[in-house]
Amino acid sequence: xxxxxxxxxxxxxxxxxxxxxxxxxxxxxxxxxxxxxxxxxxxxxxxxxxxxxxxxxxxxxxxxxxxxxxxxxxxxxxxxxxxxxxxxxxxxxxxxxxxxxxxxxxxxxxxxxxxxxxxxxxxxxxxxxxxxxxxxxxxxxxxxxxxxxxxxxxxxxxxxxxxxxxxxxxxxxxxxxxxxxxxxxxxxxxxxxxxxxxxxxxxxxxxxxxxxxxxxxxxxxxxxxxxxxxxxxxxxxxxxxxxxxxxxxxxxxxxxxxxxxxxxxxxxxxxxxxxxxxxxxxxxxxxxxxxxxxxxxxxxxxxxxxxxxxxxxxxxxxxxxxxxxxxxxxxxxxxxxxxxxxxxxxxxxxxxxxxxxxxxxxxxxxxxxxxxxxxxxxxxxxxxxxxxxxxxxxxxxxxxxxxxxxxxxxxxxxxxxxxxxxxxxxxxxxxxxxxxxxxxxxxxxxxxxxxxxxxxxxxxxxxxxxxxxxxxxx
Length: 474
Fold this sequence. Notes:
Radius of gyration: 23 Å
Structural class: alpha+beta
Number of strands: 17
Helix content: 40-55%
Shape: globular
Distance between the termini: 44 Å
Strand content: 15-25%
Largest sheet: 11 strands, mixed
Oligomer: single chain
């Protein structure tokens, strides 16, 4: 099976999948559209995969208005884009309704917006120049404490959300360095043919395999006025730093990263580039930020964008060579950039030895190279070996680790996959230092009860059959 045509994808994305096209850019974009016509179905899929269908459709309209392409060809292009555009716009409208709903839920839960911040897509999207609209998959929320995350999640569950069976909650901590429990909880709710999603991050924001932001979001947050009241959002500095942290999850510099950077640069908002540079250097995020800035300088002649690109390069002094790439959504590349980051994080941030940092990098590569899905079965010999190499948290004492991503699988999900109608009796729990969390002794295995719900902890999403048979019910 052949991989994606990355050269073609770059031509499409850099050609008409980006913001702020100049008159010269529109001419080049029209040529790119003409060349893409024989493969327009494929191009439409590329725009959807990279989440810039709405941006590209707006650019096509601009190209037509400037008479850069014949109307009949534009009609054909719009017809092909429409298949992806209609659901993309509908999903974006759904996000707007979600924000209003979450604002009300937060107030009803007794939480102030100083305790909850909207991250990533929604924060970045407010900088996009009209009539462009940023597409986003979900609403990302952040609370500084597990307690506030639990309060917010319970309120959202009352509103009809449920835990996402496809993405399990996870927890980490780095108590040696003073970082308390942090993690992420995924919620979904069907909305007709669509799905509303909310991701609740708490504690801090995870970066790559074992890193995390070593500062709170309080001084990086601002407020935004909605009809339902104020909501917490990120300042430009917070958006720029978090975008580079999130880029590790993708493993490449995406077109959305380009558009977010350009939108902030062109918005007229003041940016403290020294602060941005300081945070990116402190968190070992210079390689991807440097590639982003240089790529924008190659693409844009807009004065504001060029000033921003030059300011970012000056602030971070990025390395001249890097394994990072633009628009290359490769599983192997994702593993490599995260492995490089894991070594640098341990060596330069944690001041670990070369041996320890190398071991962490190997573990990181093995973690990222796998494509995991929840399964109830015995591990193969290779999987048993890989499992032995993984760092293990001590959940009974609730001693979590930053390099051990402990996934918490809903007990009902495990039993449904195991096709078991029986459940072990739920034993008394051992209280952890965290309010609302208990450890359950279930034979030779352990389970976790969080606020009345039982979860099976796992590091590799493989649940042995004898363990699945002993999973207790809530």
